[in-house]
Structures
1.
Amino acid sequence: MAGNSHAEFPRAARGSVAYKGAKGWKLAAKNALGKLFATWTPQTATSGTDKTPVAGTRFTAGVVIPHTCDLTGISFLVGSVGGTDKVIAEMHKADGTLLATTTMAGTTVGSAAGYQRVPFTAGVVGEPGVHYISLSFNGTTARFRTIPVGELLTKSATGTFGTQATLTVPTTFTADVGPIASTY
């Protein structure tokens, strides 16, 4: 049960992405790399699309936890600008119920073009299956990198920074919306 599901997105072979059309999370965990990365693979800190957030909007992408594991936070790829805005990360169950969150005051976005780890307020046990990672920013200065192509389930939804809400889970892939992110 101890251990990380994966340390960062490029090491997604440890199991990370959910995609439309899977007949179950086991299929998603087994075939996700082939389905998603057949068309696009994050190679560098500038992979994906540089996204300017709308303050308070929640940007969401699906992930698969392939086995029971301890989770302590979210790692995401900062875009071309960092360091000024705050970010809140959330992890939701398959039905949209909040499983874990980072501090509601937010964490200052890290340096540009680097992975940033944002710890949960308390560690959680990640159960096998589809989950969702959401990021919300308090401003529009910092950027984050998004998934440009693939079959991930992604979405964005208007909200208020620092306010938790049940997630209405995504049902389709929308380019340049879902953050390049993972659990740790």
2.
Amino acid sequence: MKKKFLFLVCLLLVPALFLMSACEFIFSDDFLFGDDKPQDDPADPPIIEEEEKIKVSAPYILSLGDFIIWEQCSNADEYLVYCDEELVMTTEDTRADVEDLSADHVYTVVARNIEHDVLSEESNEAVVSKNSNFTDSEILDLSGQNIGSIYTIRSSIRKVICKAETPQVYNTTFILDRRKNDIIFELENVTFQSKDEAVISTYDGTYSRARENWNLILNITGECSIQGIPQTEVPQKPANNSEKKGGNGLAGTNGIIAPTVVIRGDGYLDIIGGDGGQGGQGADSTFFAAKFYGDGGNGGDGGNGIQTQYFVLEMDSYGTTTVKAGNGGKKGSPGVNGSIITGPWSTSNYDDHYGLDGKNGVSIRGEIITLGGALYNE
């Protein structure tokens, strides 16, 4: 019985398989189209997603007197430099020298990728100030004058002259009023010195190029100096048995505070931060008083030689600039431990009640760019 069943199944499966093969052939491209079977067109390019367009970052430029600089921009091969909206040069460098300094000019820079011919957005505007062709109202001659302890230089002044055949000292703090253009100091055989915050400073003591976008340019002839006078005043000692701490020493004077300092010329220039003052002694405790002595005050921090965002040395081959920081003031001592009541408990840790020594200043706080001359950074 089983053999008959299997035989019937085989008889049914064979025709079914033959019918399926026949249908597959009938509906194939070879049967329907013959030699006209559609072929892939070899001329059609493969489908590729559109490549993302390259981007070139825009430069941020700075004027540093007679040249402008910027950092390397991503994907940039060259830079197009514009003066007053006119293309004046193309360079692969990140610096461009300025030729005409008889008038103020506005510079911008555009970065370019050569392979893809892609340009960046235009940079910020940088004003390159003139260094010649000044009017009489733009020049201030202080040579030989007695100008007092504080002198404010107005924003309309572009050039300050202080010259002497023999060494001359000005005990003056120079305050530079808020401005948009460079200011030039022509110095010959003069010394500027002060005990205030700085010898030469912006009007509020800030030096960020984002806020004060100009240069202080010093043209040096002969032997010149800009120095903070050491702080020698000691804080007054507190009254006996007041348990008060001694006063802190005065901070040393900074030499220069300006957004950019450019040194030129063939002379010798010393820029020196003043020493900080000594910390004061704490209050004494007397014999029968139930009082503790006071702690010593802290020494004042030393002044910086230069506080700036950019320091540029561009002197002639014989020109020399030395920049020194001021020393921190010495710590103040505790008051006299004179009480027989509190003294025995406070004698063992007396040394722990001295103040702290002031921190030494920094010779140059800012980025240093050396293009010519000798720099001694102490």
